[in-house]
# Entry
Amino acid sequence: MTDLGHAPAGRRTGRHGVLTLPNAISAARLLLVPVFAVLLLRGEDGWALVVLAVAGASDWLDGVLARALDQRSRLGELLDPSADRLFILVTLIGLAARGAIPGWLLVAVVGRDLLLAGVLLVLVRRGVGPLPVHFVGKTGTFALLYAFPLLLLAQSEGVLGDVAGVAGWAFAWWGMGLYWLAAGIYLRQAWRELARRRGSRR
# Structure
């Protein structure tokens, strides 16, 4: 994660500001969240899967463009994971409401995010900015984003539904493990950063 306040001149994003193509794609993905929620509530699973596929493709595309065009920004670093979290939350709530997933899975994901949100508040109050996103957390998020469309597809009957169910739960278990592993890494980083700040003030 680039520290924009201390980035070399060739890597600053001030020339582009926040109006960059990657940021526009991330913002569009955020706007797709309520569309997906409505489709899910109406039981229009086919269109909901299409929206998820478009959102997943845009998640990959905005990262590629940000690196290729050198348009990485702090706003983009906030928009990207926010859209991912919202898609995960909405999908979890929809699947739990249908009885497609157990309630503990919803609690495990939401509880983890609430825990890290609390840690982030502590860091901000101590004058520490958000810590860099670890690749383990990003991998876990991708696994969950693959899992939930498959679990949604598993609601259909026949061989397709059965195969999707097995694959979906495989991704869900793998994603949950990485998700919580990343939480542990983040907590350790936060503890070390706070300890370093306390030590530097003495």
User: Anything to note?
Assistant: Residues 1-15 have pLDDT under 50 and may be disordered. Residues 1-94 form one domain.
